[in-house]
Design goal:
9 strands; 173 residues; 34% helix
Amino acid sequence: MNLIITCARHLEPETRDELKKILTVFGDDNPEITETDMSGILTARTKLDTFEVIKQIRKKIIEEPWSIRYCLRIIPIQKVANTNLEDISNQVHSLMERVNEKETYRITVEKRNSNLPSMKIISKIAENIQNKVSLEKPDWIVLVEILGNTSGISVLTKDDIFSLETSKRKLLE
């Protein structure tokens, strides 16, 4: 998986079709889109650059605001790990080279179907990061998306995540 998509509950088939259409238009004729066993969550694997996909979707919203209805959030995933402290921490640290030593960060953990305590995950990741933490306006977000036994990990900015609500709200400004 290199994308996690959220949608309204019970609209997974419509979301899958919408995402497939979007990715096909952008140049991936055969994306793998999977409905998870968690309501409102899909995963996808595309051959496209996921950060570029987010930029293209934002352009599409400006040109055709009606064209995206079901994909509420689209999150690029850079690494996939088993849901355990060591694997998650190792994957995060392999991505931290993107972050300049003077930049700030925040760790965000979104858990679904896991009993692993969020504070344990955050502590394990943070123990080897020297950068300053900024919870309000970080330069970077260390995102850990836990989906049961599998975790998606990314080090990104808030603009790297697509939110339908935020994008449409900006159109009204």
